[in-house]
Amino acid sequence: MSGIDAAGGTQGDRTTMQNGMTAIKTPGVIKISSWELKSAGMCQQICLAIRCSQEDKTRSYLYIRSNGSIEFNDANGIKACCTCCFEAEDNISVNYFDRAPYKPTINCGPFPWCCIIYCGAPKIEIVDNATMCCCVKMDPCCLGKQAVIMPFEQLPPPCCCCSNRTSACDNCFNLCGPVVGNPKIFFPFSPQPKNASAFVAAAQQAMQIARASGAPESLEIDR
Prior knowledge:
Elements: E1 32-34, H1 42-50, E2 61-65, E3 69-73, E4 92-96, E5 105-108, E6 117-120, E7 123-128, E8 131-133, E9 136-138, E10 145-150, E11 176-178, E12 187-188, H2 196-213
Antiparallel strand pairs: 1-2, 2-3, 3-4, 5-6, 7-10, 8-9, 8-11, 10-12
């Protein structure tokens, strides 16, 4: 017979062991931190308009969950079509830190360096979308900072001695180019948090604790 949790709901009857961070050590309890979302940018607004849709932040959300995962619902994504006449579809994903795209990997280099092995340690980082121009930071499109997934700290072979971060040499010593410290290769995700710096700090902490402790439910994340 299934138990009843503190909120009056059933805890379920599962007895089969779960694998990795999907396992719940305290039945019926997953703590979350919920993050304020960034408004749609100009390009996204245009895409929504083409699909006869309007921005909806009330249905979208971004959670860091205590069981070592990030959950998000992108109601403004590709499924948002004709929302002026119909309700937007939910577009929900849950990514665990012990699986792609966050799991550390061992990879072979591209051809013809296939025999060279390199390690990828993905992390959540910040990209500053401003551009340096004559030592002045400019952001004409008002894109601000974004949270992204950086797959590795060092570039893969044959550039394994090079960092995957923009240096002063890459932007001509702040004369023209991206901001120093930005990842060069990264993968964006949506929706974006309004406060990218605070979200990335919390996500990095959650990822480190989950990997080190092996007990994701011990995470305590305050928002």
